[in-house]
Design brief:
ten-stranded mixed sheet, 41% strand, eight-stranded antiparallel sheet, single chain, mainly beta, 371 residues, Lipocalin
Length: 371
């Protein structure tokens, strides 16, 4: 079978962080347009968390993206655990980066006049990502909420710039492909309003801290008919701080991270060379016609040589890479998170020459020295 179709169509240069008041209640907003009953809200996080990341897949047969009608009804045994681990309030910071890894300033129209007068450059959004998954059925929803920058901690920090609501599975499914692991890690392929543009969203959970995650979004476009190219990168660094409340409160002081866009990028020497990989995979080219799939562990250890080609170095020990094989038959879309020296987690989506998704690979990696 061919694969899954993709859906529709500073004074000076000083940089400062943006602060918001702790647990400031927001003005009520419309609830998600849910087509399933909400599970009860638990007061604690589950204790089970696996060590590797998860990812999604899809086949892109041409730049004119068609509506995906593949089934989302089948789900494997780990979905309830995944649903429990992903659900809750995830707050943090987000930033956009160029294909060379340079941070992009926030739009001028959202930056307070005082910042512009002081020539303060603002690169980071404070974000909320309330997420809720239904354990009995393969369905989930989340909102990405960007909050307007404010001057000083006492300013009204509850003003939303925009809200991006997304639905996974169910009758209102918006995702073209979604692969997941019990840990709460996943990768999703989303279509966008712009023709020929899609998003590869890789969500990686820190295996040492189940309440800490990063989401790296590779914005992809098409050139020369079906050739995939990187357009820009979005990064979100988030902390879980409580059960799902639909974003009605800010994490505030409970958030253990801060603005990061202009912090030091990953040192390239720490990711080059030979790595040993323990993999989980999802095969889409010859798999049943299901949008949602679990990543299955693969026996054995594989080796992977990482070089500098097309490697984009990012803050928070993250990287992105889009690379073609020498024969041009495959395109590898990879992101990674260096957890500590000699240890990383990665997520890869592998596409064929004509843009068809072949497989997704998520890995727990160690250098040969660190084994």
């Amino acid at each position: 079978m061919a694969g899954v179709g993709v859906g529709m169509g500073m004074v000076g240069s000083r940089v400062i962080a943006i602060h918001h008041r702790h647990h400031r209640t927001l003005i009520p907003t419309p609830q998600f347009n849910l087509h399933f009953n909400l599970p009860s809200i638990h007061s604690h996080r589950p204790s089970i968390m696996s060590a590797t990341a998860a990812t999604p897949s899809t086949a892109v047969n041409n730049p004119v993206l068609q509506q995906n009608t593949a089934s989302t009804d089948s789900t494997s045994g780990c979905w309830p655990e995944f649903a429990s681990n992903i659900s809750g309030e995830w707050d943090g910071y987000g930033a956009d980066f160029t294909i060379d890894g340079h941070p992009i300033e926030l739009p001028e129209n959202v930056v307070p006049d005082a910042y512009r007068e002081w020539e303060v450059k603002v690169f980071d959004w404070q974000t909320q990502c309330p997420t809720l998954a239904q354990p009995e059925n393969p369905s989930a929803i989340y909102k990405l909420i960007k909050l307007l920058p404010t001057v000083g901690c006492e300013a009204d920090a509850a003003t939303r710039f925009n809200v991006d609501e997304r639905t996974i599975g169910g009758p209102t499914n918006m995702v073209s492909a979604f692969a997941y692991q019990s840990s709460g890690s996943y990768t999703a392929l989303w279509s966008t309003q712009k023709a020929g543009i899609l998003e590869l969203e890789h969500c990686l959970i820190d295996p040492r801290d189940k309440e800490s995650r990063v989401r790296i979004v590779q914005i992809m476009g098409f050139e020369e008919k079906s050739k995939l190219v990187l357009k820009n990168i979005k990064v979100f660094v988030e902390q879980w701080y409580g059960p799902f409340r639909n974003g009605d409160q800010l994490g505030g002081c409970a958030i253990r991270d801060s603005a990061f866009a202009t912090t030091k990028a990953l040192d390239v020497s720490q990711v080059l060379g030979m790595w040993q990989c323990v993999n989980s995979k999802a095969y889409f080219q010859d798999s049943p016609n299901s949008v949602l799939q679990e990543l299955i562990p693969v026996d054995g250890v594989e080796k992977s040589l990482r070089d500098k080609e097309h490697l984009v170095l990012l803050p928070k020990n993250l990287w992105s890479s889009i690379k073609e094989t020498e024969d041009g038959e495959k395109t590898w879309c990879e992101v990674g998170w260096l957890l500590e020296s000699g240890r990383a987690i990665t997520s890869k989506c592998i596409f064929s020459r004509n843009g068809e998704l072949k497989e997704i690979i998520t890995s727990s990696e160690t250098t040969e020295v660190g084994v």
